[in-house]
């Protein structure tokens, strides 16, 4: 579904991604872990064009989003194509980024109506089903500010799902939440995984990585150091840096 | 020199007998205005100075907002209004006047190429005047003409009105003849003054109504100046001829 | 008291001039200000700089001067020169001047919207224009209500500057009567008129703020 | 060109009047505004309401009217009535008016400070006065710089209203010369003078903002 | 050191504290746990007069802060006495509440100078010692905004300690922090406990409660339900609600 080859990205003088590659198949649930500042978020953001890469190649479901030619010039496809390709990926942020001036329901149906040009009646059943799925059917008329953090994040997930993406990207979806609220979001994500959604999840929740992900990758200082099936990753990490990190998290 | 400084001090003192505060519009050439050095000059200024010397008092010139002249006089901030002040019946109710020292007409100024030649031609036209000037009363006194006008526009000052005349948005401006001639001298090719006018009138010096003592003294000084020719001399300096009466 | 009643007619006539200028200015300067704000944050350096210069010029010089300029000097300027009648000249000056102030308010409002809102809209596939129209601007309105309220109330009082073009707004009518009748009562009545107008405005803006209070940022 | 040079002297004299009024107003209205703001947020309902009413009155009526009132009508008011000379009357009106505006800016600034700052100071044993002086007000300064900058620039231009008391500020001197010489050049030169003043102010405020940028909230 | 008797507190119609009592001895390290909204923060804030109680009695080191008479009227001592008594307790907030316009050092020395009227030279050695203790000696000239969350919280601890309190109150000191930054703050608190500081800590960190506290109290719906030595508390909770809560946290 996603193929990233040798991604490079620098902010000013700092090289944040130093050649990261990843292949992701349909139904994969990959957890991305690593210390703060290692480039996890930047990697995710490069995949869906929230950041532009400096070198490398990204293909999404067989379509090339960006490639680098022999002279080292990085070329993106046209704006409309970028939008079309990136729409295959839904994204959930740490800070939710819900639209505060819209109710929960409006948040969910906004993009289908504006982007996909569906009529309200067409999307409403889907939206209600999704809200029920994340356990928020009765909150459809609330504003985001009236929700707890865990509820906000579940709305964000429903909003992303309403665009029917093939792949979901999560950037630390629970780290702005109280420990007690984390559980409900993780449950929703676990449910998605069980329905075979393809997911790429940056997380600090080791339990989630251990139990839900089928692959775990470890990033440090802009490099992808380890990439292994979940069980193996925790039982027997190859790299000393991975081991040190896992120790510090327990 | 700079007249604001002493002015502010004067107002805080009780009416000092040794000093007379003259209120004037310092944007009123040629009667009172500021020269290139920002000094107050003008025909009325010279006249008032001469009178003060004769009375043996200091004179202080105090710029006022002309449209607030009655309030200034009333509040005692100034003793005298001396700045081409037209004697009218309305004003006589609030202001004590000396006998007239000069005659003036409410002249009608039009663009040089204007078809307007008489007062009657003003029917349906837009006429400008300075707000609070005696031109307002002079025009409004002739009720039929006022009624026939398209509009009587009251400007903050005469120059704004004259500029609007140049711009073609006004058809005529009514203003004191002495003032009008001053401006027309500056742009002789643009304007002309009609034969017709909104009546003759007279300039006098004004004081607060109850201040009869000062009024009497001013009257005396003015008469003396007219008789010994010093008034005529000042007039020749400013107008090239003696128009003091 | 009878005297006060006799003032109401003329003062009301002045008030209609004041209100007319007020509403026309508002109707023109708000959209113009929005356009200027969007140009100001545009990535095209030259446009942004030009708009910036315009705003600087309009905010840096007195409105009265701008009005005199448009009325008297503009007709002699080549190409753009046009001779406007008095009220339209005042309207143009007010609209251009207030558009500059509103542009700054809009710009600050737009820039106060969190980057996350743009990213949230972007990953859903909204274009820049859609993001502005559907996500950013509706939120901006809530945030700019307080400065807009201030500026609008200032506008009510600024209308009195049109006396320089010999237009009879409320304050000028009051001054005329003060001169005629030799009493300061008309000032007091005029002050009451202004207070009523600003009160109504304050009330309208408070209602709007309340309406937008139904959600929090 | 020679003509323009000959204008500089008189216009500069007008500018000194403008600047004098500007600085005295600023020096009086900023502290007065701060006092009003503190009274406005006081828990004593009656004081807070009274200050609120004062601010409403001062912001709801035109400054020009306030000036005319203080100059012409105040002497006839019993008890507080006092006859002020022209410049002091203008200063009083400007200071009272701008204090009301500054008070609102200060109040908003003080209320924008997080409750946590008060609690943090309280658990350390600081009194309310100490908290205000050491913790809250220093942070308020940073936040109010942008609106203060706006208001101050408005003040520069508002000074031209003192023409109603026949004081020869920059704009009135320019108008006087226009009347004497019958040309609009003095207006253009005056506009340049205003632009320079507002530029200097903008620059000063930018430097202050930069200085306070060394910490973030 | 602290004796609270039958504290009652309501916000509007909601009774948030329904008769909470606690006795705390010198050197006690008490962890307060309980679900969100159970009144933990309110309880702490009542102890040092950030909230006023409606009924009950509080004594701090033998001095009465507030008492309720026979008629049920709650009476606080005078303002100056309140300030003097409450100064014996230092407090650390979840949101740090550092003064953003002051450097780290200025934050620490502000209260000793303003409140205790010490001269700068008198407090400087203490301040430097405290900053060294929390591991931030070299950050003394930084502004709070230049610090990570963990560093901010440690400055907040140093600032509270600079007033030489006999008791330290902590209200969820780590819950605004990333998991990785939590460790450094907990280490500092553990060190304080080892130096026999009397501490009352509202926390979600079960490990901290288990390992550092000598007593754990559990609050639910405005009541103090369980109060036991730490080992016992986790090994063998009495109350079913405690058991349910502990389960959900694991
Ligand atoms: N827009 C930006 N401009 C400059 N530097 C940036 C930007 N975004 C990120 N960085 C830097 O890039 C590096 C990697 O950041 P990134 O957010 O990808 O890390 P991360 O692994 O997601 O960390 P965390 O766990 O804290 O979210 C960091 O050093 C960060 O400071
Ligand atoms: N200032 C206040 N006004 C009104 N209600 C309040 C106020 N402070 C707290 N409450 C309410 O009192 C109850 C207890 O709040 P408190 O903050 O003490 O709980 P807590 O146990 O600390 O929860 P958390 O773990 O979320 O911090 C909650 O229902 C809360 O909504
Ligand atoms: Mg990240
Ligand atoms: Mg709490």
From TrEMBL, chains A, E:
Q: Where is the ABC transporter domain?
A: 2-246
Localization recorded for this chain is: Cell membrane
* CDD domains assigned to the protein according to its UniProt record, in alphabetical order: ABC_HisP_GlnQ
Q: Which GO terms describe its cellular component?
A: plasma membrane
Task: Write one Gene Ontology MF term.
Answer: ABC-type amino acid transporter activity
Q: How does it sit in the membrane?
A: Peripheral membrane protein
Q: List the SUPFAM superfamilies.
A: P-loop containing nucleoside triphosphate hydrolases (SSF52540)
UniProt cross-references to PROSITE patterns, sorted A to Z:
ABC_TRANSPORTER_1, ABC_TRANSPORTER_2
Which keywords does this chain's UniProt record carry?
ATP-binding, Cell membrane, Membrane, Nucleotide-binding, Transport
Similarity comment: family membership: Belongs to the ABC transporter superfamily.
Task: Spell out the protein name for this chain.
Answer: Amino acid ABC transporter ATP-binding protein
Organism annotation: Pseudothauera nasutitermitis
Its ancestry begins with: Bacteria, Pseudomonadati, Pseudomonadota, Betaproteobacteria, Rhodocyclales
UniProtKB/TrEMBL annotation, chains C, D:
Please give the family membership noted in the entry.
Answer: Belongs to the binding-protein-dependent transport system permease family. HisMQ subfamily.
Predominant place of localization: membrane
Please report the record's description of how this protein sits within the membrane: Multi-pass membrane protein
> What is the source species?
Pseudothauera nasutitermitis
Presence of the UniProt keyword Metal-binding in the record: no
Q: Which residues form a coiled coil?
A: none
What job does this protein perform? Answer: Part of the ABC transporter complex GltIJKL involved in glutamate and aspartate uptake. Probably responsible for the translocation of the substrate across the membrane.
Q: Name one GO biological process term.
A: amino acid transport
**Protein name as annotated:** Glutamate/aspartate import permease protein GltK
């Amino acid at each position: 579904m996603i193929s990233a080859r040798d991604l490079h990205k620098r902010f000013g003088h700092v090289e944040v991604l130093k050649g990261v590659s990843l292949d992701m198949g349909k139904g994969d649930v990959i957890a991305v872990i690593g210390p703060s500042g290692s480039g996890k978020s930047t990697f995710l953001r490069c995949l869906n064009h929230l950041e532009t890469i400096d070198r490398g190649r990204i293909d999404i479901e067989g379509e090339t989003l960006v490639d680098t030619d022999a002279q080292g010039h990085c070329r993106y496809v046209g704006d409309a194509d970028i939008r079309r390709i990136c729409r295959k990926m839904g994204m959930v942020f740490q800070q939710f980024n819900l639209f505060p001036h819209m109710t929960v329901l409006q948040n969910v149906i906004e993009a289908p109506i504006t982007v996909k040009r569906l009529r309200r009646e067409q999307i409403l059943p889907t939206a209600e089903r999704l809200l029920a799925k994340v356990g928020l059917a009765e909150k459809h008329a609330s504003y985001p500010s009236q929700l707890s953090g865990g509820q906000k994040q579940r709305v964000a997930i429903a909003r992303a799902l309403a665009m029917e993406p093939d792949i979901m990207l999560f950037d630390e979806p629970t780290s702005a939440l109280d420990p007690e609220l984390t559980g409900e979001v993780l449950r929703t994500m676990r449910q998605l995984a069980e329905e075979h959604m393809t997911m790429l999840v940056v997380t600090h929740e080791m339990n989630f990585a251990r139990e839900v992900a089928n692959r775990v990758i470890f990033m440090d200082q802009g490099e992808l150091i380890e990439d292994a099936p979940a069980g193996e990753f925790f039982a027997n990490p190859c790299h000393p840096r991975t081991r040190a990190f896992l120790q510090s998290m327990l | 020199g700079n007249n604001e400084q002493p002015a502010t001090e004067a107002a805080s003192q009780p009416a000092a007998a040794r000093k007379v505060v003259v209120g004037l519009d310092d944007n009123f050439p040629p009667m009172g205005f500021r020269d290139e050095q920002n000094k107050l000059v003008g025909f009325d200024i010279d006249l008032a100075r001469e009178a003060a010397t004769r009375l043996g008092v200091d004179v202080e010139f105090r710029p006022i907002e002309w449209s607030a002249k009655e309030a200034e006089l009333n509040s005692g901030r100034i003793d005298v209004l001396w700045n081409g002040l037209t004697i009218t019946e309305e004003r006589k109710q609030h202001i004590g006047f000396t006998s007239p020292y000069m005659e003036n007409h409410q002249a009608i100024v039009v663009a040089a190429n204007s078809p307007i030649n008489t007062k009657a031609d003003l029917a349906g036209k837009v006429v400008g005047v300075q707000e609070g000037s005696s031109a307002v009363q002079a025009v409004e006194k002739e009720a039929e003409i006022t009624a026939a006008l398209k509009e009587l526009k009251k400007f903050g000052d005469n120059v704004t009105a004259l500029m609007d005349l140049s711009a073609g948005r006004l058809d005529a401006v009514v203003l004191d003849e002495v003032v009008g001639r001053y401006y027309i001298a500056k742009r002789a090719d643009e304007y002309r003054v009609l034969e017709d006018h909104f009546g003759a009138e007279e300039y006098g010096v004004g004081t607060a109504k109850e201040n009869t003592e000062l009024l009497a003294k001013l009257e005396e000084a003015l008469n003396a100046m007219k008789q010994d020719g010093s008034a005529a001399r000042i007039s020749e300096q400013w107008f090239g001829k003696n128009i003091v009466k | 008291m009878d005297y006060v009643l006799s003032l109401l007619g003329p003062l009301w006539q002045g008030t209609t001039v004041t209100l007319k200028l007020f509403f026309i200015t508002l109707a023109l300067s708000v959209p113009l200000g929005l356009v200027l704000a969007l140009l100001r944050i545009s990535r095209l350096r030259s446009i942004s700089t030009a708009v910036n210069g315009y705003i600087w010029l309009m905010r840096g010089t007195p409105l009265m001067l701008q009005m005199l300029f448009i009325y008297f000097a503009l007709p002699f300027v080549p190409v753009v020169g046009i001779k406007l009648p008095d009220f339209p000249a005042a309207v143009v000056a007010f609209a251009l001047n207030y558009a500059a102030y509103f542009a700054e308010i809009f710009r600050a409002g737009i820039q106060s919207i969190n980057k996350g809102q743009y990213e949230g809209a972007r990953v859903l596939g909204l274009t820049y224009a859609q993001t502005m129209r559907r996500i950013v601007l509706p939120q901006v309105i809530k945030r700019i209500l307080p400065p807009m309220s201030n500026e609008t109330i200032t506008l009510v009082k600024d209308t009195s500057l049109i006396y320089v073009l010999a237009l009879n707004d409320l304050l000028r009518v009051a001054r005329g009567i003060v001169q005629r009748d030799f009493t300061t009562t008309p000032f007091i009545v005029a002050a009451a008129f202004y207070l009523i107008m600003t009160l109504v405005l304050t009330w309208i803006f408070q209602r709007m703020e309340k309406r937008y209070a139904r959600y929090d940022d």
